[in-house]
Design brief:
The complex is a heterotetramer of chains A (129), B (134), C (102) and D (109).
Chain A (H helix, E strand, L loop, with lengths): L1 E6 L8 H14 L3 E7 L20 H12 L3 E4 H7 L4 H6 L11 E4 L2 H9 L2 E5 L1
Parallel strand pairs in A: 1-2, 1-5, 2-3, 3-4
Helix pairs in contact in A: 1-2
Chain C lengths: L2 E5 L8 H6 L7 E4 L9 H4 L12 E5 H6 L11 E4 L1 H10 L2 E4 L2
Parallel strand pairs in C: 1-2, 1-5, 2-3, 3-4
Chain D lengths: L1 E3 L2 E3 L15 H10 L6 H17 L5 H12 L6 H7 L4 H8 L10
Antiparallel strand pairs in D: 1-2
Classes of the chains: A alpha/beta (129), B alpha/beta (134), C alpha/beta (102), D mainly alpha (109).
Chain lengths: 129, 134, 102, 109
Amino acid sequence: MQFAILINSDPNQSPAVRSALKFTRAALEAGHTIQRVFFYQGAVTTASDMLLPPQNEEKVGELWSELAEKYKLELVVCIAAAQRRGVWSEAEAGRLGYKAHNLRADYTISGLGQLIEASVESDRLVSFG
Amino acid sequence: MATKKIMYINRVTPHSGLTAKESLDVVLIGAAFEQDVALAFIDDGVYQLLKDQQPEKTGSRHVAKSFAALGDYDVRKIYVEQESLDERGLSEADLVDLRHENPEDDYRDTASIRLISREKLARLFGRQDVLFNF
Amino acid sequence: MAILHTINQSPDTGNQLLACVSRALPDSAIILYEDGVYAALDKIAARPNIELQKLDCKLYAVRDDCEARGLQQAALSKMVKLIDYPEFVELVTQYDVVQAWS
Amino acid sequence: MLEVNGRVYPTDEEGYLENISDWSEAIAEAMAAADDIKLSEAHWDILRFLREYYHEYEIAPAVRVLTKAVGRRLGKDKGNSKYLYNLFPDGPGKQACRYAGLPKPTGCV
């Protein structure tokens, strides 16, 4: 079966990003496919490369990267939500004249259409947070 | 692209953060995909539709105003749960009047809001292909 | 068309569980995860308004989330079956649509 | 930034006005002139329509919605994309919303 995953909550405010990771990993290990993982609302900060949790805390954004590399997952961050919360790709930052950018490798920034498309083209939408 | 039944369920108050606005953004962008779309307002979500809101007093966005444009976006089914209104002492007269041109009735100007009982709406949830909750 | 409900909030933090319980149909199932697992405590599950024992639908709670929060299986309602993520995934495939209460 | 009659108005990097209340007809004319467009009465019909639409709904409509709404309110001869693209060759959604002082249309991202 093919799943679309939607995550809505800030990783510092809610375990949703981590629960979604566990679900996605279990789905892939059971032989299912993931159409796309879409980060919306507060969850977009998962994709920031400039978060520095203390050394004894896991970086959940990095865990997603590892899973994405292993299974060639598409991790998509909503552009409108990301701009509101300070997550920028190099291209978007350059286009709008910002000097800094912080989008992690393995993530792409795109529009909400990607969420709708994923939910229409997969068998189940599973939302977290 | 296949056509699916998509329902957006709104359950939060309109002025406590970005959720109501970010939910509406999904609906507006989703409208371009020509799916079978419905909105549902339940629990505190019914406050989003109250008329005479003045969000400029607190600097928040006027989602109730924007809902009035949903007809232009071909979003015609807007369900409001009767019990959620009752529990808050509200009635349909307290809500914004949302309208669309009904393609099945010679594009006659038609009210978009449909009051529905909790039980019927719960059954309707089960008849959707995709549920978005905000 | 059967619904799989997911609940991730403690019943005393938000009203997700109440919202779900008042609308859950007999052929549906509820998964409690994250803080939602507190509702699996026997005492809370039996509270008036919640009364999970009166629901006809199946009830599940994610084991890791219970154990992380120190909830002992003996303290949980007998109605609730503990599951791991692979079973969570399996349940999603068995139901027609997921209602992730927010 | 946009300078009109000696006053400077903040815009975002794509040229949309940052404060919708800064808008004036002179600003629309200056934006159009920068694109080598002289605003005709036909352009103004659309720009006024967009201002009213935004005032009513707080939404800068996507082009598909704009086309339909114009057709309904200003007549079918104007509510088609050929007519609107003739007036606003960079895209009636984006370009007309910008001249009208609105934010970037919802549905463009």
